[in-house]
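Hi, here's the filled form for the chain we discussed.

Project: internal
Contact: R.S.
Residues: 144
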Amino acid sequence: MRGSFTNGRGMLVGLIGQIVVRSTFGWEEIDAIEYDLRDRDALVEVKSKTTTVEPLPHHHASVAASSFHQQATNLVFCRVQVAYNPDPKKPIAPQKLWILGWLSREEFFDRSALVRKGEMDGNYAARVDCRSVQAVELRRLVKP
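And the returned structure, exactly as it came back:
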């Protein structure tokens, strides 16, 4: 995909997160540029990343600068465990998903730190400019 540092793999991971969150909580699917789901009056954007390990409280939840324009009222953060594959052109094999938690858009931008491309975001160098918080700062989602 043009402009994708994950060669489009991120779109699949994002879709997996969106489907799991929607089916877990029964929220309405919207799948617009600005947000993915609707929970009553809340417009929800699901942010999913790959991982090869179980997420820990000190791991980070981030939003790329290219998504700052999105006007969702709430952000839900997920991690999708995939088998390690060093070849970015090979398809991924999702194994497990964790819903880390959520923050309102306003809370996220108030609490998050700006991380520039190449700077450390937790234990990883950021591939793009982003804003980031530790997973421990997220609110827990409770299944109805």
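Let me know if anything looks off before we file it.
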